[in-house]
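Crp/Fnr family transcriptional regulator
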Amino acid sequence: MLTPVATRPAATSHAASWAPRQAAHCSTCAMRHLCMPQGLAPEALSRLESVICAARPVKRGEALFREGDAFDNLYAVRSGSLKTVATRHDGREQVTGLHLAGEALGLDGICDDTHPRTAIALEDSSVCVIPYSALKALCSEAGSMQLRMHKLMSEQIVRETSQTMLLGSLNAEERVAAFLLDVSSRYLKRGYSPSEFNLRMTREDIGSYLGMTLETVSRTLSKFQKRGLIEMQGRHVQIVDFDGLHHV
C-alpha cells in the first residue's frame, strides 16, 4: 500500500510539483486486479512501481485537475470515488463519469496534452500519481505495459460508447435501472456488496450523468421503491429485486 502524503497543493497545482517520489507497492494493493498492474509480469510490475509517485489525498469537493489544465500525469483511484465534469457550449456543466477505486483517470488528456474535463472527489479519496513521460518510456521498453495501456484506453472507449447508447436509446426508468446495476456490478468487482451500497453522487449529479432532471431521477427512484425493486434511505441503496431491475 502507498503511504498517504500529509500535505496537498491547491486544486490547480499538478501532483508532480508536490508529491515526493517513493516506490509504490502495487503488488500489495487491494485494487491491483482492476488497476494498471493487472496482468503484468513481475519485472514489469516492479518497473511500474518505480515510476508511480506517492498517493495524493483528494478531499471531498476538491478538484484533482481542472478542465484546461496541462496534462502531465495519469491517475489511478486508490480509494474513494471521483466524478468527471465537462463544460457544455452554453456554460452548463455535465457529469461525464463516475470513477471508483482501481480505475484510471486522465487518459483523455493524452490527445491534446490538456485535460478536457474536471475531476472532483465525491468523498475523501486518494489517487496514485503516474507521470506520463515516465510511463510512456516504460511502455516503449515493456510490451506488457504497452498492452495494458491499450486495454485501459479500450475500456474507456467502451464505457463512453455504452453511455452514449444509454442516453440515446433508453427511457428514464431504463436509464436509472442501468445506472444502479452498473454501480452494483462495479462494487461486486471490488469485493463489496452488490446489493447494498451508498450512492456517492447526488441525485442532481445522477440526473446530469443520465441526461435527466433532478425531479425525474427522484420520481423514478420513488417508483422503484413502490414496486419493491429497491429500498432507499438517504443515499443508501438496497437492491431488493435484481431480476425486476434488469427487466425494467
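thats it. Confidence is low (pLDDT under 50) at residues 1-21. Helices lie at 42-51, 132-141, 143-169, 172-189, 203-210, 214-226, 242-246. bye
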